[in-house]
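for the record, two folds in this file. i put them one after another cuz i was lazy. first one right below, seq on top, structure tokens after. the second one comes after a little note so u can tell where it starts
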Amino acid sequence: MPGKTLANVVSLKDSFSKNDSVYLDVRSPREFNKGHVTKSINIPLFSNEEFSDIGSIYKSKGKQEAVDKGLVYASRSMSDIMKAIEVYKNQNIFVYCARGGMRSDAFVWLLDSIGYKASKLLGGYKSIRHQVLSSFNLKNEIKIIGGGTGTGKTIILSRLAMMGCNVIDLEGFANHRGSSFGSLGRGAQPTQQQFENDMYFKVIKDLNEKKIFIESESRKIGKLVIPPDLWGSMGRAVYVKISMDIDRRIENLIKEYGAFSANKLEEKIINIKKKLGGANVKKAINFISKSRKRDFCRLLLLCYYDKTYAHSFESRKIKAINVNASSKSYNEIAKEVKGC
């Protein structure tokens, strides 16, 4: 590889202006799995073990020996790499490694030498993360959609998105509904970095200047934490409180959780037994065993969720815009919320 600075280096923001583009992450799988550009493709120059070995050599023997070892490892995987990149030959390729250093330089040089349209992302993943984290201090007007469990806040968000509104679906990005039962049917959550990256690449980078709608959440959604700047922006937002009668909320909960097995539901009940209370835990488990879904949901709402929500709302000490949603369709609710 020539020992000179590459001319085809672009910033992350400049890369967005290119159509038919693909992002290639040449870091090790372990680095990639911790966090990456959303929808990027991992084509690692080194395996996890090789990357660790090169790092150890760098520390013990110096840069040149580490570089030499890296060349040996890369040459072994070159055939597989060439096969993997064939499909991207006619696309605009953006390559990044950890800091925009030797790995991405080498990869872009290789692609250039065989006629591919390739550029290196300036500063690599470190710069990408800086861009992601700096994006959460939102300047738009923000409306927080709140309300008791079962009011269908996520449905309202989806209707607002269909109307062309700016929406950040935190629970969707976190792969968790945010409640004690929020992990049911959802599978693994993303890493903290990927949670933040996905919000940026899928929504925040394309936001217009209109107001943004976000569902009210606790600071933690499952194992994930809302980024500090975004949490601060949410704290300055206007709160829209959805009011809905308990029978409709029960029906919504049955649709959401009614298909899960008794064992799964009982596990979640045991997790909240201190807050729900021993007597209510027994009642809940009894309702589950007898498939009394409505009674089960009513007990959860009255004895757990509504109390938790009331405490959370009162602690905010904010004025709220109330939307009475009991007799309205979700399209009607969304239109009213949009106009708030």
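(here's the note) second protein begins now
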Amino acid sequence: MTRIAPQDLRAKIMSAEDAAAMIHSGDTVGMSGFTGSGYPKAVPMALAARIEAEHAAGRPFRVRVWTGASTGPELDGALAKADGIEFRLPYNSDPIAREKINRGEMDYFDMHLSQVAPMAWQGFLGPLNTAVVEVTGIRPDGMLIPSSSVGNNKTWLDRAEKVIIEVNRWQNPALEGMHDIYYGTRLPPDRVPIPLTRPDDRIGEPCLRCDPDKIVAIVETDAPDRNLPFSPPDQTARAIAGHLLEFFGHEVARGRLPASLLPIQSGVGNIANAVLTGLVDSPFEGMTAFTEVIQDGMLDLLDSGKLRMASATSFSLSPEAAARVNADMARYRDRMILRPQEISNHPD
């Protein structure tokens, strides 16, 4: 059963190959995705195949790619392998792309993730020809239900000349209602303060807006997000977690931290995940998190009841944890909030 409610938009359903044909050499393409979650899976693969065919025929074909952060092998990996990326921002972890960047074969701009959207809006990055964004579904009113990451999707949809949507049936429809899309970060003089003071504040809308006239193609998919599993905590990671827990306990005892601590911000990777896992056995209750991604350790904290609310821009879960969340999304929906990365990663 289709997740595209508007009849007029159903007329735009097509294959990934036909959608990729609307992207031209030299185009700047803004794609969804943040740490292997919520990135388009079909159109980039079709585009990579088209680029390889053009190269085989002796014709140049490369595009400029903007995303939220790192993505998955079907996007960065496929396009880099096809030598189809001329320029990449703002973050990359794909090994093929990394080698090309280090050899000077791919231009790269590594920038603070919260600054991508403002710089795009202010025109510093140039025009955006096409947005390719994965969503969970399209509501009867035309609003787009985000998937497992928000990243820069709001900005890509607003700035792009044309939009290609991937509707991924693998994403649980119970994701609807988890997101908080804030539209107050417009250009001056229309920009207003960000009225966010607690991780569980909701200041925006649950869905993404998109001018339906800009949507040129919709591709239906059914493919999982791709993230690597976390390594089990080793002796070093456990020691780091122990030192941090000891510090928290000391600060609570001295009255400098509340018993629920202050909102937690964690990095990405095995050590940060080990620290979060260590908090499961801590005495701290009613904790909150305002951070970049929700990892396995944060999921364990939510399940234990120690963590009350987690705010981020994306999931960054192991395959096992991703399947666990996706199968039980309705239970997690009211305890997590996914926001645009210009909010989740804001330096303030």
